[in-house]
Every structure is written in structure tokens, then in C-alpha cells.
Fold this sequence. Notes:
The protein is of the alpha+beta class. The protein folds into 2 domains: about 5-235, PPM-type phosphatase domain (Phosphatase 2c, domain 1), CATH 3.60.40.10; about 300-390, Orthogonal Bundle (Arc Repressor Mutant, subunit A). Helices cover about 40% and strands about 25% of the residues. The protein contains 11 helices and 14 strands. The strands form 3 sheets. The protein has a 6-stranded antiparallel β-sheet with strand order 1-2-14-13-7-8. A hairpin with a 3-residue loop joins strand 5 (about 130-140) and strand 6. Helix 7 crosses helix 8 (about 265-280) and helix 10 packs across helix 11. The longest helix has about 30 residues, at about 360-390.
Amino acid sequence: MGAFLDKPKTEKETRKGEGNGLRYGVAAMQGWRVEMEDAHSSIVSLSEQLKDWSYFGVFDGHAGANVSRFCAENLHSFILKNTKFQAAIKENSSSPDLNLLEQGICDGFLEMDAAMRELPNWKSGEDKSGSTAVTLIVTPTYFVFANCGDSRGILCHNGEVLYNTVDHKPSHTNEKDRIEKAGGSVMIQRINGALAVSRALGDFEYKLDLSRDPKAQLVSPEPEVYFQSRGEHDEFVVLACDGVWDVMSNCEVSAFIRSRLQVTDDLEKICCELLDTCLAKGSRDNMSVIILLLPGSPKVSEEAIKQDEQLEAEIEKKLAAVIEKESGFDLSEMTVGYAISCLSSEEIEGLPPGGGLESKSNVIERCLDKLIDEKSKEKDLNQKNSSKEEDET
């Protein structure tokens, strides 16, 4: 069976919350992978001193789930305890020293990585897991993104993606230079032909040269930190692991979420719909997403709800016509993927932007089950009537 299951696990862990004028939703799904290695954090009030600061993070583990879980539980504490971070907010947390704040966040990542390395499972070399990390601190005036690896965050503002973090891949020039200086190589876009990310927490088998600075190892635990000023037209932030970004672009994710926010204000539901869409689009990885809703976000529209209902009715109608054409086909073997393939040649207006037919995979599955059931009952009835006629003759 290798690294994948025979069929995906689609059950989801979800969460929601609100505070500081923000609302958020979370969803995580194991998918095709044999183990769930993602983890996430959501803290509306970061500390007693920083009650109006919020913190969110998505951590994408590999080779095991221990590092990602440790990050989710502890990274914010290492950042808060860092002396530079404390100095940045000492005078006035409403107007922190941004240079010190950046240094404090970076050092928090490095300090946690070093502390984790000394714990028994990692010190012995028994645990070889690692994790990417994308975090967001929301202050009253700034969005502070920190990214280490290829999980990604985007900020959507006034109908477009205003900002996105940059993935750390071994083939990128700066990353490749560091890897080669540390004695490694980049083959098939992986470090030594094995690891697909160039920055991560954990992964200590790639950090063995203790004569080198932690930031100069084959795999660096150093994040890149970015500041974006908050504005009245900010709509939402999305943090997600590469299981999402592998199959949907920044603009597609943004457009899809924006369209769904006009249909429902249930952020957990929208998160789940996004993961189901990515699964239908071919994602084979674990998937986790946090959607953080901001005051400038789209609002639910009765017209959009009506259009969505009409769209689903149209999909059911066209699917019924497809099944009618497949009269010689064993309908019990018709998969959602095959149904989507058949419907893709049809002209269907009003599909969610960025999501397409795949974003209606659950609707298609529900309609398919209903239509197959109706066909089965019709077949049984015809057989009974035929038997009755034979008995009468």
C-alpha cells in the first residue's frame, strides 16, 4: 500500500472561534495518506499583555507527526518568551518595534528547534520527523506572517490577493546555494534527492554539521517574517499546507472562498468545502486550512444563495441525463470522478470560481446516490411486473 491508502479518509477535524473583531474556521483532513501528520494552532488572545493580539498556525509534518504537534503546542510560547520579542512590545504593544519583533519571532523558531533537538526522541536520532510552519500574528495594526517551508499564507484585500508568503524549495537560488555550501546537492528538486522542502523545523538528520550556524544547515529552521498593515478593505487570510496549494493557486483559493462567503457565513463549512474541492482536484496529501475572516469580507447574499440552489438543481438534471445515456453501464460502479468527467463536457453556468465542478463533488455524489437508487427501484419494479405478467400467462 506504500504511503497511500486504498481510499481517502475524508472525515474532518473542525474548529471555529472569534474575538478581537475576528472570526476563524479550521478544517483538517487525512486524505490519501496513511497517517495524519498536520497540526494547527488558533489562539484569539495571545497573552495577558497581548489580549488584542491573535495567533494562528498551520504545521505540515513529514516522516511522522511529532514535530508538527510539538510546534502547534509550543511555538507561540517560545516566541512570547524570546527577549527580543519582549523588548519589542515592552514600551507599547500597540506600536511595537518592528525590527525587534521580527528578530524575536525568528529567534523563537530557532530556540524551539534547538530545544526540541535536546528532547530524548530527537536526541537519540529515533525520531526523524520534521514540519513546515506558516504562522500569523494579528496585532491591532499589522498582519505578521512567518513562513518556514512550503505551507503558505495569503491575504485577500478588496477582491484580490494582496500578499502571499513565498515557499522555500530546494531549487530556489538562495536555498540551493545554502544547501550546496553545507555539502548537499539538489536532485529532482529535493535535498539529496529526498526532502522536498529547504526550510523546516525538526529534520535533524539534515542538521548534523554542528560547526555551522543553524541557519546555514542543509535544512534551515529560520522563517521569513513579513509585515502587512491592516486596512478596512481586508477580507480574509488563508493559512494552508501544500496539500491545498498543490492543486489550487492563490487566486483560485481566494476566488473560491470569496464566492462561498456570499452563500454561507459558516467558516467551518467553507473550510471543509475547500478541502473536498482539493481532494476532487487530485490532492494526495494531508490537508489543513485556517480561514480568518476580517471586517471587509463579502457578506451573504440572498441572490447568491438562490443562484447556488439553481446551480445544484442544474447539476442534478444534467447528471440524470448522463445516467440515462449510460443505460448499459453498471451504475453502481459509477464514481464521482467519472461523473465529473462526463459533466465536464456540459455547459454549466455559475460554477464557483476557482473551484469548478470539483467544488460540487459532494453535491454530485449525493445526486448520484439518489439517481442510482431511483434507477435500482425502477429496475426492481420492472422485474416484479415482468414476473407478474409471466405468472398470469
